[in-house]
Design brief:
The protein has 598 residues and is α/β, with parallel strands linked by helices.
Length: 598
């Protein structure tokens, strides 16, 4: 927790100091009110007391209550500002940390867990700060100060108060022991319900296509029921606190008055004829006044213990959240940025793999074995192979989504590990297997992350990507809205907009990871021709399944089980690479392959 509190700004620390000052004032005023009550009780019991004196003490008591309320409001304001400021800083810190995560770290936590940690867990911390800043500071001060106030009173009353405090401590100790293990379970189950909900929303079309609504409902019911049962268990345990506290507070008042009645009865002072003496009457009045005051102080002490104990019940659950948030913040990044931001002169757009081997974290055997090849500036290099042959794994090493375990990858003559990671990725236009669209407009998606986009440049990129036909038919052209995930456009349209995004960036290197799969053969051919004509100086790496997409490439790399089975042009591979031949003949006839038809 102390590590998270270091995120407080100087302004927030000043607010904490101000809050502590107002808490001290609030406690002083609250403990001052029983003194006035004592005086009012004494005046009422004493013959000849003036009403003005009673009203004066009553007025002072009322002023104490009003100023105490004012101090409480100010303290609550500062506590809320500190809590919201800290949670805002934590969310920003967690978000920025997650943005530095690579696939390894994302897989370590899972997306649903990261969402829960950024929202629910930080909300738990915010709640503790908002409530705890008052309770954890006020309760000890209030308790110690009140004990000093009653230390010179009747010892019997102190024993009763001590017994009540011990009962409270035992009750809360049992509560913590029973409920604490469930708090970790609750956070884990919250991750689970988030995961199931997210899966259902992302895969809603598949769910409907397979009429699997009931299946998904049952999955949700399972995790929801378990979360509900766990919440009910902890809720039932916590439910004992309220009634028990009511019994203790009512019991302590009853015990103090009951004991007080015996003490008062034992202080009768009478003469030989049995007539009460004035000294005895005064003493009984003082004891009665002390009893009223002691009862008020005792309840305040018990309330302080209750607040402190409640915080210690809440604290274990929040500490689970603190640990989960710290796990994200303290995670070591497996891929760190270098210092180089430029390649070697004359090597722009060159990509070289030197004896590269790679395996996924905790993934067992290597998925790439001793890969070596060079893609020169302006070349189109295609990568083809059977499913799970390592095509995507290979190209993911270039922008450093993963790092090679053996060998090295060079871009512009420099090892990618030496590059500043932002400088490296600035050189690359990446189009992934899944076309990702962000909520916004066509223009904002094409000019993604560009500060001052050019309308002409956006339209040119859309035209090259063969997206102009459908964009022009949209209601507002390039300013037409795109929903989150691009659900209001087709798969082929999303792919073309993703390609337009990369084209608009004008990078040195294009990486197409099976990015033409949703396009028809005609659009595929026209798009590749436009890319060749308009981006001729850029190096292009194309991962594809279709022979027709890659047959005109300057160099084709054939992968089999993570190793290179052949390198060369289409005609050469058709002569000397059996793996390539099998792929080609499975898609096209011999005549189509010979005359170049797709």
């Amino acid at each position: 927790m102390g590590k998270l509190l270091k995120n407080l700004t100087k302004r927030e620390l000043m607010m904490v100091i101000c809050a502590v000052a107002f808490i001290v004032v609030q406690v002083w005023l609250e403990l001052k009110m029983p003194d006035y009550m004592n005086e009012i009780t004494r005046l009422v019991e004493t013959e000849g007391s003036k009403m003005s004196a009673i009203l004066k003490n009553g007025g002072l008591m009322l002023l104490c209550a009003l100023f105490s309320m004012f101090a409480s409001v100010i303290t609550g304001f500062f506590a809320a500002r500190v809590a919201s400021g800290l949670s805002m800083g934590l969310r920003e810190k967690v978000f920025k940390k997650v943005m530095t995560f690579n696939n390894k770290e994302i897989g370590q936590f899972s997306t649903s867990s990261l969402i829960t940690r950024t929202t629910n867990d930080i909300t738990q911390i915010q709640f503790l700060i908002a409530i705890g800043l008052q309770a954890l500071i006020k309760a000890p001060i209030h308790m110690v100060w009140a004990i000093t106030k009653i230390s010179n009173k009747q010892w019997q009353w102190s024993v009763v108060t001590l017994c009540a405090v011990m009962v409270i401590l035992i009750m809360f100790a049992v509560t913590v022991i029973v409920a604490f293990p469930k708090f970790k379970v609750i956070q884990s189950l919250t991750d689970g319900i988030n995961r199931v909900t997210r899966e259902n929303l992302i895969g809603i079309r598949v769910v409907r296509a397979y009429n699997a609504e009931n299946f998904q409902e049952n999955k949700f019911e399972e995790v929801n029921d378990e979360l509900t049962k766990t919440h009910l268990f902890t809720g039932r345990v916590m439910a004992f606190i309220g009634p028990t506290m009511t019994i203790i507070m009512s019991g302590i008042s009853l015990a103090i008055y009951w004991i007080g009645s015996y003490i008062i009865d034992g202080t009768k002072v009478v003469d030989a004829s049995g007539v009460p003496q004035m000294d005895g009457v005064v003493k009984r009045i003082d004891i009665f006044s002390d009893m009223v005051v002691f009862s008020s102080y005792a309840i305040q002490i018990v309330m302080s213990f209750m607040m402190l104990s409640i915080m210690f019940v809440i604290l274990p659950r929040v500490m689970v959240s603190v640990k989960r948030v710290n796990e994200v913040i303290d995670t070591d990044i497996s891929i760190t940025s270098g210092n180089t931001d430029k390649g070697l002169p004359g090597m722009e757009g060159t990509i070289e793999f030197r004896d590269v081997s790679f395996k996924y974290p905790d993934g067992g055997d290597n998925v790439l074995h001793k890969i070596s090849f060079t893609a020169n500036k302006g070349e189109t290099v295609a990568i083809i192979g059977a499913t799970a042959s390592g095509k995507s794994s290979l190209i993911n090493l270039i922008p450093r989504f993963y790092d090679a375990d053996e060998g090295a990858v060079y871009v512009d003559g420099i090892n990618v590990k030496e590059y500043d990671i932002h400088a490296l990725r600035d050189k690359i236009g990446y189009i992934g297997q899944k076309a990702i669209m962000f909520s916004g407009t066509v223009a904002s998606n094409v000019a993604y992350s560009i500060d001052s986009p050019s309308e002409e440049g956006i339209k040119e990129a859309i035209d090259i990507a063969q997206a102009e036909e459908f964009v022009s038919k949209m209601s507002e052209g390039i300013e037409s809205p795109i929903s989150q995930g691009g659900t209001n456009v087709s798969g082929g349209q999303r792919q073309r907009l993703s390609i337009a995004r990369a084209v608009y960036k004008k990078p040195e290197i294009y990486i197409f990871d099976d990015s033409f799969s949703a396009l028809d053969y005609k659009t595929d051919r026209i798009l590749r021709t436009e890319l060749k004509n308009k981006t001729g100086d850029a190096t292009k790496l194309i991962v594809a399944q279709r022979i027709g997409t890659i047959r005109d490439a300057d160099k084709i790399i054939v992968l089999e089980d993570g190793a290179i089975a052949g390198i060369g042009k289409h005609k050469d591979l058709m002569k000397n690479c059996q793996v390539y031949q099998e792929i080609a003949y499975s898609q096209l006839s011999k005549e189509e392959l010979e005359d170049g038809r797709e």
